[in-house]
Structures are given as C-alpha cells and as structure tokens.
Structure prediction request, 678 residues.
Amino acid sequence: MVQSLDQRCVNTVRCLAADVVRGANSGHPGAPMGCAPMAHVLFSKFITVNPKNPKFINRDRFVLSNGHGCALQYIYLHLLGYDVSMEDLKAFRKIGSKTPGHPEITDTPGIEVTTGPLGQGISNAVGLAAAEAQYAATFNKPGFELFNNYTYVILGDGCLQEGVASEAASLAGHWKLGKLIALYDDNNITIDGDIAVSFTEDVIKRFESYGWHTLIVGDGDNDIAGIEKAVEEAKKVTDKPTLIKIKTTIGYGSLLQGEEKVHGSPLSPDDIKQVKEKFGFNPDEQYVVPKEVYDFYGARTQHGIQAEAAWNELFAKYKQEFPTEAAELERRFAGKLPEGWEKVLPRFTPADAKVATRKLSEGVLTAIAEVLPELIGGSADLTGSNLTRWKKAVDFQHPSTGLGDYTGRYMRYGVREHAMFSIMNGLAAYGGIIPFGGTFLNFLTYGWGAARLSALSHLPVLYVMTHDSIGLGEDGPTHQPVETLTLTRATPNMLTFRPADGNETSGTYLVALENLHRPSIIALSRQNLPQLEGSSIEAVRKGAYVLQDAKDAKVAFVATGSEVEIAVNAAKVLNEQGIPTRVVSMPCSEIFDEQPEEYKKSVFPAGLPVVSVEALGVWGWERYAHAHIGMRSFGASGPIADVYKKFGITSEAAVEKAKKVVAHFEKVGYVPELGLDL
Prediction:
C-alpha cells in the first residue's frame, strides 16, 4: 500500500487508538479513529506548542471537548514528545496513570482543561480565547506581539446538544473572538444511535446566527488538504470565531464504522487485525509507531521549541522597553499575588452602619481591583443585585461595539450562569487570571457542572453568590437556596464562605485569594447586617472562631452569615438570664476542619452543648452541633422578618432551643462528643 506521509501518520493514530482502548478493555475508539485526520492537520500544521515546556505562555491552546475520545489526545501528546510515554498509553484508564478516562488538567502534561461533561470543553475554550484577547489588548505593544495564540477545539454532536455550549457560543460570537476555531466532528452518532432520533437542527445556521464564521468539509475521513484549507481560511477571519463542520465516519476502518457500537466499547481483536491490514500495518503487532511518523512529529516539536525561543527573545527585549508590564506578567504567571495587596481590605468597627454583605463585597472588589490587575469578573445579568462591578471597571467588549474594549476586566455574561462558570474555568486555566462571577446562590446549581470542575481542576475561581438564604424574602422558595451550601461543603477541594459582617467579608476575600489552588463559593446576604463586636479579617483564616464568650459557658451557638446576629442577640438574653453562652462564628467550615485538633477543641470543648443557627438546611451541622435551628423544608414567599419567624429562625427561638438543650443534657448527665472527625 502506497501512502503519503500524512496518511501514514493518520493511520498510525487510528491503529494505535484501537490498541490503547483495547488494552484498557474500556473507552471510546470511535471518535479517535474518526477524528484522526482533523487532529493530524491541527497538530502537524497549525498548533504551536513546546512539549518540553507545556506551560509556554504564548502556546496555542487545544481543547478536546468530546473528552471521551481522549485516547486521541494522549496519542498526539506522545507523538509530539510530551512526557507521555508508550508505557503511559498502555496504562490508559489505569489507577495512577497519566492517561485517565477523560482529559484531566491535573494528571497529564499538555492538557489545558479538564473535559468530562460534554459541552464544558467548548465553553472553557471561549474563556481561553477571551483571556488571549484581554492579554493581547493589555500587554501587546507596537513591535511586541507577546500574545497572539489561537484556541483550537474539537467537539462533537454531544457537545453541541448541551445547553452550556449554546450559551458559551452565543457569547463568543458577541465578543467576536476571532482566534477561536472549533472543528465539529459531524459523525451523526451518539450513544443512542443515529442523531436522526434527537438532533436534526441545522448547526451551521445556528452558529451563523450566533455571529460565527462557518465552513464545511465534506470528507473528513480522507480530505486532509481540505481540512487544512478550511483552517487556513478560518485564521483569516479575525472578527468572528469559526466553526468548521467536518463530515466523518465514527470508527473509520472498523467493521462497525458508522455505528453507535463503535462509540463506547473496544474493538474486538479480530476487528483490530483487519483495521491494521486495511491501513498497511502488521496485524500481529500492537502499539506500533513507524520511525517516519516519530520523525515527522519530531520536526513539529522542534518548530515549537524554536517558537518559544523566539518568544523568549522577544520578551527579553520587551522587558527592557516595558519593565513594569514585564514584571507584572512574570508575577502573574508565577501565581504570586502583589506584595502587601491585603492592606487595602476594608476594616470595620461595631460603630459602623449595618450593611448587606453583598454591598460589603462590592467595597472589597472596588478596593482589590486596583491592586490585583489579574482579577477579571462579571455577573450573569445581575450586576445591580450582585454588586460585582467596581467603580472604575471597563467592560470587556469588542471595540466595534462602543461598549468597552478588550482591555476591559468586567464581563457581561447575560443570563447565562452555566456558560459564565465554564468560561471562568477557561480564563483561570489560561494562566495569570483570577476570575470571579456573580449570580444568586440558588443559581449556582444551574451551572454546577462547571463549578464542580473548578474544584476537580484546582482552579482559582471565585463564585460571588448573593441572596444567600431564605433572607431573600418575597421571591419565595424558587429563589431561596436551602440545600445549596450542603452541596458545596460536601465537594472536595472547594471552599464555602458565608461572612457575617464587613470584617468577615474582607477576610473571606483574603482567605479565598490565599487559597488559589481551589475555588471559593462566597455566599452573601441581601439584608443589612451589623458590624459585630469581636469579628476580624484575620479570624477568617481559622474558618471558625469564638466571636463572643462568657465565663463557664453552659451552651454555645455556632452560626454563619446573617444568623450570627441572631446568635449574638440570643446569647445576650441568655447571659442576662444567668445562662453563660458562647458564640462561635463559622465563616468557612472547610478551613476550620483543616485547623489543628487543639484549636478545634478550644472552639468546641468537650462537654459544651452546641446549637447551630443557619437560615439554610440543617444537613451537615451534626458535625459541629448537638441541636439545630434551620430549614428542613423549602422556604416561603413574604417579607424577610415574616419568613424568618415562620420557620423559627429568630433570637427568641434560639433562646428557647438553647434552654431546652441545656436542660436535656443536665438531665442525662453528659454531653456527647461532636462528629468533628478529629
């Protein structure tokens, strides 16, 4: 069989993909075999990366949005010379391997974002492309084009059916992100079979309506030149993202090609043998890469090494001409915060007025935005309610709109919570950016798929969630989150903050920004709250602390957010009635759980009954308290005071609950240990 070198490379990938998936006895061979030609074109002719330095700043970003086809990406990482060996390919989907079942940013060098749930990858890619545009507008100078990388995506029918992809694509078109190029693997197959059963829309017309440039390649199985021409044409369009629809055959070469059976199961050994014979390989050999294929991709690797060397030389000259900007870039991409940034955090005394923590958050953002240029934020159409826009903010917009420009750091996401969260993940993954986004806490779960991936990916994303409890009031149970923080507190590598006043709000941002290896949920009140005696910014570093104490306390309240005031008022009454009462504020339970055992026992000493107070679900509070004041049902519509009274979340109710708890444990003669997992 006479094959061009391009075709030999493609067929090598197809055969290797079949072997890799078969070796794991698990995975998806169909997409890698069908997408091999488009991936070959991207990695051999367009994508500029340096496998010897996967974090080269101006590298092109590649996202495999249909992440179940990750064998394809792992194979190309191997061929290009990343730290992904043939042995790693043989360990596909094994415990502890560099080649897990879906692309993981934490596991594999060369992976830009973690793409598991469909639609997330293309949405992350919008964030990656927006980051490039923002950096280019902010730091590029005449003769110094430091930032000009492209973001390339491969995605499939499944991604295009997920709503988050539509939200993000709409924004990408609005923002005119011309360096975003998506290759659509149009193979007409999902797990349920031919897409005729569920997906018959005209994708091209949809993306044109979003403001995308669109192209079609009719033979994605063989027309390598056609794919290359389409990408070249896409790069010429600078004011629109591009979608290239490429018609392919899933599992190309298999006896099951074109069928859903080749989507999610390994090919049989006999099928693999005939695939190899068909493509000119020895059917009895496995995991084979011909020398000429390694040499071909080795040349591409050298291109990437040389590209970074040229960029480094350019940056050295830039550093001489623009030392301030260069130093900022070095700091940001090193993941370091400016020295002394925390000094701008607002501080408060009990003499200061009552203020909602959402308003206090606005004050913090206004202060830190001036000293943290890497902070880029926005809101899902709720800017006036979330109070996320600082006073001097410029909107991130294409200059042609007259509404802002690409140097802007405030993003108008529209009513698109899920896309906002996914785009924030992309912004963070680009490097040197700390993104934040606002919506009501109840709508965090609208975009939970992306928020969970923030935690899984260790990304520094701030979720500014206002209207944080039944204190939302009149909007009623559809908007009142009673269960949401139970979910966030149960999620690994995620911090949940619910500050009680101004000092704790400042402290929340302090601790969130000191923990940039994990996302933070910041739950903020709609209603005004007092500045509390005993609160401090630094106390938030402990997660929970004794806000107010009484000698020989007989009972303790532990509360968060707006309910700390209720606990303080109840403690005052109990102290006056001869029942010494401690008040513990717990702005972040996860941080508290990480404290030394001695400290945790000092806050909740053995033998001290504890009552939790939070205007959310009581689930999880059994770890810290013996009795609970909170929600065991959905909320209700009405004025805030009436809603709190209806559900018994008042200082009067707290006093009565505390008395009952004290009396109960005095009667039984002991106080059981708390479930603190010490």
